[in-house]
Design a protein that fits this description.
By secondary structure, the protein is of the alpha+beta class. The protein contains 20 helices and 18 strands.
């Protein structure tokens, strides 16, 4: 049987994809499936009073690690996932029998995670529909990858300056000279704005849309985060590209990710307008004056941005001053200071920059705004959300009863520890160690010269002090101390050829050369029981817990009816996709 640590890892994948199962028939548990499509799906397995629907296996081939060569591989993969779910629902049945569905700890975990699941439901409702990718989009992207363009670019932060430069360049001004003089992208300004040849897939969306398809010599002026770009294409050439079938999934994922980010940004812009954050300028002036009075304009020779303050240095009434209001709420000065205390300095705007401060407050409150939106849309009553929450609760119940049973069945007695210790005499030992000096040098020639001196009787320690290049070893005259095989495998192995006080011939170690001298040997010794008792207890607990859980699941299979139709799995597999193989 598969180990339970692995089983629950696999189960987590299934949970993320499908999120919808429960214990039908358990008193007070509610319906097993709220979503009508799930309810109508064929039942692939019955576990006690729970049902596992075929819909939960239909899209497993879309998992990142699910790359199948044959239909049989896909079947075996899905069968393993189904077996994992069956084991999990056996535990769920046992958990309901023990009343864990009313356990305060489990109810708190479910309650604490509810807001995150509700925001996920909002994402599926508002963002997910916007990020569908067609075959045509993937093919168009792929066609663009067949060329790469040579780009020159000037970046400035001021729009008026960008307009002026663009006009001059359109009238024939030298682009490279203008870039060296005006571009604020220092890395490329010194190169005259030369970005070199760039592939389509390595360009940002702004460059792809405004620059990639320019004709040679054409200019483009466009806005980017933080400023403006003026770009020019000077050449284009064919690019090597893998076949479309090898890149299809990568391209699709890239387009999908960009669409997701764009849809999310647009939605956040809507929320920013809707929740109408208004900064209280009296509060910002108050805290600015406080900062000016206590903090210098420069610290360590650098300008101090004056964008934070220790809230503990404020009186309680000062901490309670309203920094900003928004639709449905407000944020106090003390709350803002505490919640942004761990932000990086560049992320916190100065209190004089009202617009940036509004954006920072939006960032702090956006989770609450999303939760409010989800509630307004009554997504907490949505069938899919109810299935998600039910499935999550069942998963937590299964984990808890697994933990309880594992602890019960992993108890280890002192006699068991002693018996294990006596039965494994060669396992708990201090390994054999050798005491070595070493001279490590860079070349074989150096090693040979040093070896000749050793043969003539020159002191090994003095030569090590003069020549060894192993870090920190010259001051120790090459003394490595006692080493085990795992410390320096090559040196240890070579030492086995030596007698006490004998030095070796030169031999290679990596890209260097070594000579060693054997000083002492400590033979392997068995550790005392007291030294390893804790280690043995942990090993036995793990072993007994694992065996105990596997035995327990077998007992549950005897207690609860398990009816599985593995043949139904074939209905989820598109056999045509494997015909060419």
């Amino acid at each position: 049987m598969r180990t339970f640590s692995i089983a629950f890892g696999l189960f987590a994948i299934v949970f993320l994809l499908f999120c919808g199962c429960g214990g039908d028939g358990h008193e007070g548990a509610g319906p097993q499936y709220h979503d009508p499509d799930r309810a109508k799906s064929k039942t692939v397995a019955e576990v006690g009073e729970s049902e596992i629907k075929l819909v939960m296996l239909e899209d497993l081939e879309d998992l990142p690690n699910a790359n199948f060569e044959t239909a049989e591989e896909e079947y075996e993969f899905k069968k393993a996932q189904l077996d994992t779910l069956i084991n999990m629902y056996l535990m769920v049945e046992a958990a309901y029998a023990q009343g864990l569905d009313k356990d305060p700890e489990i109810l708190k975990i479910v309650s604490d995670n509810r807001p995150d699941f509700l925001r996920d439901q909002l994402f599926k409702s508002r963002i997910l529909p916007e990020i569908q990718v067609s075959d045509n989009e993937v093919e168009n992207w792929y066609e663009q990858m067949k060329q790469e363009v040579h780009i020159f670019n000037i970046f400035v932060t001021d729009s008026a300056k960008a307009d002026s430069l663009y006009t001059e360049l359109k009238q024939g001004a030298d682009f490279e000279a203008a870039a060296r003089k005006h571009s604020e992208d220092n890395e490329f300004a010194v190169k005259g704005g030369d970005y070199g040849f760039r592939k389509y897939s390595l360009l940002t969306k702004e460059f792809r849309e405004n620059v990639f398809n320019l004709k040679e010599g054409e200019l483009a002026l466009f806005q980017v985060p933080g400023g403006w770009n003026i770009s020019k294409v000077v050449d284009r050439r064919e690019a090597e590209v893998e076949p479309l079938e090898e890149l299809y999934d990568v391209i699709r994922a890239r387009i999908q990710d960009e669409k997701r980010q764009e849809a999310q940004n647009e939605y956040f812009d809507e929320l920013f307008e809707k929740y109408d954050i208004k900064v209280n300028t009296e509060t910002t002036q108050f805290i600015k004056d406080k900062i000016d009075a206590l903090y210098p304009d420069r610290i360590g020779g650098k300008p101090f941005r004056k964008n934070t303050f220790n809230p503990d240095d404020l009186a309680q009434y000062e901490q309670n001053m309203i920094l900003a209001t928004y639709t449905g709420g407000e944020i106090t000065l003390g709350e803002y200071l505490r919640r942004t205390a761990r932000w990086e300095d560049a992320r916190r705007p100065p209190f004089t920059e009202t617009e940036q401060l509004e954006k920072a407050i939006f960032e702090l409150e956006v989770k609450n705004f999303l939760l409010e939106e989800a509630r307004e849309m009554k997504l907490d009553e949505h069938a899919d959300f109810l299935d998600v929450m039910r499935f999550f609760k069942d998963r937590i119940m299964a984990r808890k009863i697994q933990q309880v049973v594992g602890e019960e069945r992993s108890f280890v007695t002192e006699d068991e520890i002693i018996q294990h210790y006596e039965a494994n005499t060669g396992k708990y030992v201090v390994p054999r160690k050798v005491h070595l000096r070493e001279i490590l040098v860079n070349t074989e020639k150096q090693a040979d010269e040093i070896h000749t001196k050793l043969v003539k009787g020159t002191d090994f320690s003095k030569l090590a002090e003069q020549h060894t290049v192993r870090p920190g070893m010259r001051s120790k005259q090459g003394d490595l101390g006692f080493i085990a095989e795992y410390n320096y495998p090559t040196l240890y192995e070579k030492s086995q050829e030596l007698r006490i006080n004998q030095h070796s011939e030169p031999f290679p170690v990596g890209d260097k050369w070594s000579i060693i001298k054997l000083l002492e040997i400590r033979q392997a010794e068995r550790k005392e029981l007291e030294e390893v008792a804790s280690q043995i207890r942990s090993e036995l607990q793990l072993q007994k817990g694992q065996q105990g859980l596997e035995q327990w699941v077998e007992e549950l299979k005897e207690k609860y009816t398990v009816d599985v139709d593995y043949d139904l799995i074939w209905e989820t597999i598109d056999k045509n996709r494997y015909e060419s193989n």
